[in-house]
Amino acid sequence: MTLTAIIVEDMLDALTLLKRDIEAQHPEIKIIGMAQSVVEASKALRKQQPDILFLDIMLGDGTGFDVLEIVPDLTSKIIFVTASDEFAIKAFKFAAIDYVLKPYSNSDLNQAIERAKQQINPNKERLKILRETLAAPEKKPDKISLHTLDKIIIVNLDDIIRCESDSNNTMFHIKDGRKIFVTKTLKYFSDMLKSFGFLRIHQSHLVNLQYISEFIKSDGGYLMLKNGENVPVSVRKKSEVIEILDQMHR
Q1: Domains of the chain: which residue ranges?
Q2: CATH topology (fold) of 147-248
Q3: Strand 143-147 relative to strand 152-156: parallel, antiparallel, unpaired?
Q4: pTM for this entry
Q5: What is the pLDDT of residues 9-50, one digit of tens each?
């Protein structure tokens, strides 16, 4: 089955390279257009919508998001292409949206194309999370997209009480009582959330600091949460937990 594609990339070298790599490795994909700006991309997409859109985030006259706003009825599967940047990676993780990092390897590109063939396009709310997190990388995001086995659930960051490791998966405990099972490790979320008021207190537990009621020193040390739950604190994390709680109560 032949698939059509349009590439939007403002750097001519990168555009040529991506075109060459797609043609060499994916003969089933026919490139029907290329664009180097928001204006060019919008014109091309109004003329013909491809099956797959390779979309660079930063373009000379705006961003890839501007293209999506100008062409709101776009049905193409989107593969975002972005430069290697820790803030960009964090933003994509918060929105649970796939991306390809420049410079990419052949396997990165192949995986992205395979995922694009299977995926449902991100909805407006997930794109909004991505856009806002990219625009203000130091600011705490309001929401996070959680990729469960069968759907993507968007929750407020402030509504997450804690996360618990379940082998290579993570269980999110939400303020309204929901438990959301996500097929990613606790380390993945710990690295993502540690700058935003979450603390890894144990190999199996990540806690939102605003839900901590008190630290109980007996029974090896554990945290009492505002919802009445107790969460153990590992021996090597004890001094860090006490120090952070002292700072919070000053």
Answers
A1: 3-135, 147-248
A2: OB fold (Dihydrolipoamide Acetyltransferase, E2P) (2.40.50)
A3: antiparallel
A4: 0.71
A5: 999 999 999 999 999 999 999 999 999 999 999 999 999 999
